[in-house]
Design brief:
This protein has 577 residues and is of the alpha/beta class. Helix content is 56%, strand content 9%. The protein has 22 helices and 12 strands. The strands form 4 sheets. The protein has a 4-stranded parallel beta sheet with strand order 5-4-9-10, with helices on both faces. The protein has a 3-stranded antiparallel beta sheet with strand order 1-3-2. A 3-stranded antiparallel beta sheet has the order 6-7-8. The protein binds arginine (ARG).
Length: 577
């Protein structure tokens, strides 16, 4: 039962307003003493020709508003405040969670619809840095969120595997490449020769020409160049895949930019046909003045294609292949203008799917008092950040295990540290609105009491351990059936049940705004409210066996909700720590 909707139906029956309007007007009061749901009576003033305050007082007396799940209805100023019956509420919400388990919050609202989510898209031969982690983590989470809502999700990795830099790499590798080093650590070796190329290029202009020729050969499909490029691509991808595996991230399609270069002639024909291509300083461009955007370059003066043309071809390919209802690009905000231009060209070219393309941007990654031995300038590689986080987590949980005399083995501690350490990094990316810059600091992200993954995972693990202990004493949450759940009517219990009940709505809102933080916030609130309950009420103590059982059911539901929520963020839980 959806209590908000149930309240709306009561108001509808009583006032004759239509359900949609009522649903839109219902508010969640900011303070507990104002009830659980409130209906502002302003909308009725005109038809009833009375002051809203008066209407509220009269309605509060109506018999039509009573129900066994409503404990009282009160007028406060122009508001009609509804207090739900806590026991009935707990019974309703928790039975649903316990029945559905971690599929709680799942819905069919997206059924029959396809969403493409493009994320990660790192550049071949370059280290996978913390900025690529931002798109990877957001996109991975959004994919799971949309799937939860019944959408068919296609995960795409638009690899940066094309462009003039590959002419440079081919040239550099022929001159200075080290086979052994390439096999051992491809990205480090490719980076080394790439940097060297730029140094040498300053002294020898001829190198630039050779590199350009080599890229041309690559575009023309010359065997040797293609073979080298293929190796660079495969070896880089192998390294990226190690990171993806570690984070549980996967893709359905790895077509990089190179894939679309053959499709570009089709795009050029289309743009010509529509009379959209004009010449500007030797290049072929589409003017976007009416959209107040700079022209979008399609072909450079030497006839080679660029990033934007590949994106136009890619968008069309995606539509032709998947008939998407939504095509999402999880890419940093510095590329906002690029996407505005690409979408505008698609629209001008009469592509009906242009309006279903969306750029989902995000902020910058910063570090506070953190030292890394960086490989390239001040770029921090994700692998270094993860390793450091796991190592620090290990120290913390090991010290904790020692003080508690826990019997966790060394291997178990390591496995837990890996999950919690990764979770700590992932959570930092999804804990706030995506357009905000994020700041990494060990103190903040590894604070077991803070707004962190360790806090969520710890809450989960500790609750699991309570359930295990209870089971040893013969107390099982499933024995609560639905008959005992209405015993959960204390302040802290009610607050926690409410937070659990809000999760499905948070998932919907997260998808609607492409903001995973709506989910992280909801999960954090569940954990916070549960801990408040845990600190104030003894779960296993007391002699009321029925209450004990009901509370265990709450524990079980909290675990399901946390596990379901953290899964949507890409954060694993552990059974003990
Ligand atoms: N490879 C690019 C980068 O690292 C991101 C690609 C974004 N996606 C796109 N369809 N243009 O900056």
């Amino acid at each position: 039962m959806d209590f908000r909707n149930a309240v709306a139906m009561k108001v509808q029956e009583t006032t004759g307003l239509d359900l949609e309007t009522v649903n839109r007007l219902i508010e969640i009061p900011p303070q507990e003493d104002m009830g659980d749901y409130a209906f502002p009576c302003f909308a009725l003033a005109k038809t009833m020709r009375k002051a809203p305050n008066m209407i509220a007082s009269e309605l509060a007396l109506s018999d039509k508003l009573s129900a066994d799940w409503i404990s009282k209805v009160e007028a406060k100023g122009p508001y009609l405040n509804f207090f739900v019956d806590r026991g009935a509420f707990a019974k309703e919400v928790l039975s649903e969670v316990l029945e559905k388990g971690t599929s709680f919050g799942q819905s069919e609202e997206g059924s029959g619809k396809t969403v493409i989510i493009e994320y990660s898209s790192p550049n071949i031969a370059k280290p996978f840095h913390v900025g690529h982690a931002f798109t990877t983590i957001l996109g991975h989470s959004l994919s799971r969120i949309y799937e939860k809502l019944g959408y068919k999700v296609v995960r795409m990795n638009h690899l940066g595997d094309y462009g003039t830099q590959f002419g440079k790499l081919i040239t550099a590798f022929r001159l200075w490449g080290d086979e052994e080093a390439l096999e051992k650590d491809a990205i480090a070796e490719l980076l080394r020769i790439y940097v060297k190329f730029h140094e040498e290029e300053k002294k020898d202009e001829n190198l630039t020409t050779v590199a350009r020729e080599n890229f041309k050969k690559l575009e023309d499909g010359c065997e040797e160049e293609v073979a080298l490029w293929t190796r660079f691509r495969e070896l880089s991808l192998k390294e990226f895949n190690k990171l993806y595996d570690r984070m549980g991230v996967s893709f359905d399609n790895y077509n990089g930019e190179s894939y679309y270069s053959n499709l570009i002639p089709g795009i050029i024909d289309l743009l010509r046909e529509k009379n959209l291509l004009v010449e500007s300083e030797g290049a072929q461009v589409v003017m976007l003045d009416e959209k107040k955007l700079p022209p979008c370059i399609i072909l450079k003066s030497d006839g080679t294609t660029i990033y934007a043309s590949r994106d136009l071809a890619a968008a069309k390919y995606r539509y032709d292949t998947y008939h998407f209802d939504k095509n999402i690009y999880v890419v940093g905000m510095p590329q906002a203008l690029h996407f505005q231009q690409v979408f505008a060209v698609l629209e001008k070219a009469g592509m009906p799917f242009a309006k279903n393309c969306e750029h989902v941007g995000f902020g910058l990654v910063k570090f506070q008092n953190m030292k890394f031995s960086t490989r390239e300038g001040n770029i921090v590689a994700l692998e270094d950040l993860l390793n450091e986080s796991v190592a620090k987590t290990y120290e913390l949980i090991k010290a904790n295990a020692e003080t508690r005399n826990s019997d966790l083995s060394e291997d178990e501690l390591k496995a837990i540290a890996e999950k919690v350490g990764l979770g700590a990094v992932i959570y930092t990316y999804v804990k706030a609105g995506r357009e905000r810059d994020i700041v990494f600091s060990w103190d903040t992200m590894l604070d077991f009491e803070g707004d962190t993954a360790p806090y969520l995972i710890y809450t989960y693990a500790r609750t699991r351990s309570i359930l295990r202990k209870a089971a040893e004493q013969g107390f099982l949450p499933e024995k609560a059936g639905s008959g005992l759940l209405n015993k959960l009517n204390g302040d802290e219990e009610f607050a926690c049940v409410k937070m659990i009940a809000d999760l499905p709505d948070a998932v919907k809102k997260a998808a609607a705004s492409n903001e995973p933080f709506m989910v992280s916030r909801a999960v954090a609130q569940i954990a916070r409210s549960f801990n408040r309950f845990y600190n104030n009420c003894s779960i296993l103590g007391g002699d009321d066996a029925e209450l004990k059982t009901a509370r265990l059911a709450l524990c079980e539901a909290v675990c399901d909700a946390i596990e379901a929520g953290t899964y949507l963020l890409g954060i694993p839980v552990v059974e003990q720590m």
